[in-house]
TrEMBL record:
The keyword Zinc-finger applies. The lineage of its organism: Eukaryota, Metazoa, Chordata, Craniata, Vertebrata. The keyword Translocase does not apply. InterPro entries: B30.2/SPRY, B30.2/SPRY_sf, Butyrophylin_SPRY, ConA-like_dom_sf, E3_ubiq-ligase_TRIM/RNF, SPRY_dom. GO terms for molecular function: zinc ion binding. It comes from Chelonoidis abingdonii (Abingdon island giant tortoise). PANTHER family: B-BOX DOMAIN CONTAINING, TRIPARTITE MOTIF CONTAINING 14. It holds the Pfam family SPRY. This is B30.2/SPRY domain-containing protein. Residues 1-102 form the B30.2/SPRY domain. Keywords: Metal-binding, Zinc, Zinc-finger. SMART domains: SPRY. Gene3D superfamilies: 2.60.120.920.
Amino acid sequence: PSTDFYSETCRLGWNRASWCIKRFDLEYWAFHKGERTLILIDDDPERIGVFLDYEAGILSFYNVTDGMVHLHTFCCKFTEPLYPALRLWEGRRGLRMPKALV
C-alpha cells in the first residue's frame, strides 16, 4: 500500500502522536495535533537539544549551540513508547539523504 506523505497523519506535529519544532523562513514554531505556537528566539540555533521525562510527561527543546537556552516544552501524558524522528527539507526539492544514512 502507498502512503500519502503529505497527509496530516504522516506529518510531524500534525497528529496527537507527535510533537516537533519547525523552522519556517526565519521563524520557529512548536507543533502538536496541528496546533502551532510561535517560539521567540534571539539567536538562530546551530544545535537543538531534546529533553524527555517520560513519567512526568515533559518533552523540552533547547538551543544548545552555546550553553542551554530553553525553546519550548510540551506537557502531556505519554501512553506509548516514543521514538525520535527527523525531517530534513529545503524548499520544494527536499534534500537527498547520504547513502550511508539510508
